[in-house]
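Input:
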Amino acid sequence: MYIKRYHATVLVLLGLFLSGSLSAQVHEFKLRNGLKILIKEDHRAPVVVAQIWYKVGSSYEHNGITGVSHVLEHMMFKGTEKHDAGEFSKIIAANGGRDNAFTSKDYTAYFQHLEVSRLPISFEMEADRMRNLTLPVEEFKKEVEVVMEERRMRTDDKPRSKMYEQFYATAFNSNPYGQPIIGWMDDLINLNINDLQMWYEKWYAPNNATLVVVGDVNPKEVLKLAERYYGSVPRTPNVKPLKPRFEPKQDGPRYLKVKAPARLPYLLMGYKVPVVKTAKEEWEPYALEVMAGVLSSGSSARFTKKLVREKQIVAQASAGYNLYARQSELFVIDATPAAGKSIEAVQQAIVDELELLKTQPVSQQELDRIKAQVVASKVYEKDSLFYQAMQMGTLETVGLGWQRLDEYPDKVRSVTAEQIMQVANKYLIEDSLTVAELVPVSMKQAKKKN
Amino acid sequence: MFAANVKSPLTFLVAIIIAVGVFIWISEDQIIPESSSSKHSFNIKSWQTHNGAKVVFVQANELPMLDVQVVFDAGSARDGNLPGLASFTHQMLDRGAGEWSTDQIAERTDSIGASIGGSVARDMAVLSLRALTDEAIQEKALATLQAIIQKPLFPKEELQRERKQLMISLENEQQSPSAIANKLFYKNLYGQHPYASPVAGDMESVTKLERDSLARFYKQYYVASNAVISMVGAIDEARAKDIAEQLMSGLDKGNKAEKIDAVPELQKAVAANHQHPSTQTHVMLGQPGMKRGDKDYFALYVGNHILGGSGFSSRIVDEVREKRGLAYSSYSYFIPMRARGPFLLGLQTKNTQAKEALQVLRETLDTFIKNGPTDDELDHAIKNITGGFPLRIDSNRDIVGYLAMLGFYDLPLDYLQTFNHNVQNVTSEQIMQAFQSRIHADNMITVMVGDVSTTKNTK
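Output:
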């Protein structure tokens, strides 16, 4: 019923079902300039998806330039020496293709979806804009206005998105996940072309990128093509390891209220948790993943069954967790109160459910359900070239390596009821909790028609 | 791609999904041209069940999975004087059916990793299933879907609870300027026509939806003659026939739903503004568009591709976003439906420049109607549409949706084979003629939702 309108939770939803035994089919290469290449054959249709992933995103940014990765992503369509502004997408379109790009906390990626014989066109133009962007200032001035409109649409005029932004900013003091991907409005206003130029020179290079190709291709031929187009792009010495920005220990719960012209209250709760990349105990993220599944993967999961249908205290509730983040994340629970139920009552009902996880082992039936869902989704995900490429690109770019995808089903299957109790007791603790409440303020202005 | 900040074409799709309910395949971006590769072309089989349901099937053996859509002509156009009836009936189908409670149905589905879902729009009510083809799993999944289709119980307690849920989701929509604009647009565009009311109803109408009305609606419209079954997956034709019979077995033959009234032309321009405390104003502009199978279908489709239907290649995005930086998302599209669906143009921009942006939108449309596309634009559009054919059908999920669309709107089975040919034959003159005779820029609905008190006049 509720479409998630914010960034992380969707990643989280994808997260549970990230899986696949891919090793047999993934071909991995590295060019001399450092460009990593991952190729997977899928011969169901005469098409190909090509994605180029850069290790840069909002979590690489510092205060004052938030949003620069995303604005640069927009500017990547504004021309090189060879191709004028806007030409990239026009050439792809003339070849029957689709193209776009996306920026997240940990990555920026560009993709084309094409009939397979058109793959060289993608390689030629992506290789070109990897180093040869012109960044014209007049184009920048217009485009940053477009991004501000995007921010208004995605965040400022959506009460829940705005609250989500505040929630993350409160939960994290030092960890850059506290910054919005799209950037603070004030930073967008003060962004200049030099910020972009610097960002581009620093991060856009073959030795900071991964090319992912999935489709009706021959891996050796793709490699040859890649060498031809990407091979001559020079590596840069600018790419240096990021300094870690770990979050200081939280010593007590944090509460915030966000007032917005809304009709419905809304609750967000986040507990600080490790992810695959940061966990000291390798099994813990998978136990957290299964725990999220016990709470909300499917209509028979605890939240929907007990809180929505049985107790009728919430209209909707879900739990989410992105185990493939680059830095430690939040285990996020969101809920919309049922009519007439207070935020306090909803929060208490959720805390009661979490207490249950700490004191009683989950049933075999629940574990079996999650196993069945993982097995099935492993097959379903093969129906989408884009999603297959997306998985490999994400894992590679956050520094885990695509091979981790292989481990997922077994790691999830081996999670025990005992382990779920352990992570619940260790991480679902009040001292690391952030709670946000959306407080609807009057929309009476809105009722006035003219 | 909600996960990240994506450039606008994907936003178009999102806008479309919201606009028409959840029907991705109604979107103009989703039309399927002819296959360019015989190696990968697929073979569409079609037949009727013994009690008259139409079946459309494609065998796809590559993945051990099955997608099924069962589409009834039971969308909100059938609401009568109870807006939301079709949608609520559909929502209640899996809330207790046959021998199983809501919880049991959910457990049956989740325990095998299957998903049963659905959606309702103005024309259709859809039930969809995705499951592995493993024998035991397939049987359990299909038995569950069968009960939902054939034996919904509409229990009273569940109905009360679901109604509350529905009211919360209607409240939620009132927080969204784009949802408000969309409702206002349909209301003004369709007036007394059954397409006018919101698919999910409104706060007042949903309080009137009782068990009797739902049961009556179900009995009339969830009948075999009124159903289309679309299937794609790793099963053979004989098995597909058995499945279709199983899914329809307990249903009456019944009657096809009555014809939907023709949509009248707008007689004058109408402006509908709505004050909302947002930083942006959502602007929509439009009029009745075209039907599925419309005689001008290809001319209007290709024309709109050039006008505002193809993202960065289209004039509207070029004028609104690329040249002026006025909006993140701007578009035009037709939603072809049983009766004439809307033709609409839209964008969202900060309140103070809403009127300027609307003016740009109008001028872009006027110029296009007056002069039509250039030869280059037409050539480019045809290349994009025909060259992109294989992309549109590269997944089972895409194909099952297209089959449902073909079956539901009674389009010929060679529609896909002839699509590219039909697109290639479109001329600039045909586009200009179709737009000039069908699109009346002086008689359009204009909707603006935002802090309209702060919008400025540009003239």
